[in-house]
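Bench notes, afternoon.
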Amino acid sequence: MRRVLEQRSLARFSQRLRNSAYDSNERARLTANEFANSGRKGLNQRPLSTTAQSTDVSSQYKSPLIHHESNDWRDWFSATEYANPWDAEESGLHTLEHVPLDIETRHIVQLLHELYLFGQPTTNNRVTTERCNHTLKHMFSIPIEDRADRADAILKRMELFDNLKPPSQCGRWPLEVPRPNRETYNLVLQIFAKTSGTRELAERAEAIVQKMEWRYQTLGELDMKPHAFHWNCVMLTYKECTDWDKSLYAAKLVLERLRHDPTVFDPSLFVNLLRVFAHRHVNEKAALLGANLAIKVWQDMIEDNSFELPELPSHFYGHFLQAIRCLPEENQFRAQYFDACFLRACQEGKINRIVLDEFLTHVRSRKVSDKHIGIYTRKTFALSKTDAVDAILEMMPDSWKANAEVPSG
């Protein structure tokens, strides 16, 4: 009987669409939730008009306004026109300004809205932690625009349930509450690490890791303790930043974290910090700042022994050479640290193809080059660059390559 009623309701809805004055583009802009509510509630569905008041339990806030005259989806789903049902003063949540929400994200957010407001789903369409994580996985799998903002919108709505307590009568919730778990935070941070933007994006990623730390310390969620993976996501977000001074803020973050918690040290953290220094897509000013900061990190780590160093991977030496190669040839530190880096890599047995290629291509100083590989370059003078690197690597002492990682790809 229920299925028959639903079919009749859908038939009436379809007929109403055919007879309505909306053109095909306007009909396509109906949200997924409006369509679902229309099919399930029959005569009690939300009105199609964006100005009329809704008759269901979610009528406490207005339907989102839609710019029908625009062909830009950002105008259809502008966050500034999407009603925020929470009181900003009570919950501390502010409307996301200038953040476009796509249909899928908008639908998940609305379901979280309703569950938070009314304590139970207003439709048969339930939202769970697993469903939110599935949406985040979809965002991560394809390079959609503004996906970091969309992921953050879902995460912040899920975090609101941390402030709720179950009914005292039973001590537990009658249904699963969509709180974020470790997978949720991992996915959001991975999305941030793949998104280009200003430094503000990296600072938001840092705040997400700090929220994980808060959950670990305050809520006792042991699996929320941040590890090197999470801080590396923050470093990779800095790498994608477009601010010329991003290297300075990334270095400051790493050094502050080490002073706060020395156990956070992981070789991969410094490798990714050097990747931030070496990422020169902004301008020459940014590249020079990264080069000088790379030298400062080398001085603290290697020369001054400020940290109890574990074994550093080959990538550390390769990215360090990439970071300092933009220094002018007349700069005294350029040749000095090309020499020091290659010498230490040889001593640690970390010479691989990437380190050798970077050194051979950008050393510039004939004196430094002859000191380390002069005997090999003279034998491979007639070869192409690619063949020369392979030949020199083959002729090098095995002790120089004993602990090197094989480059991927």
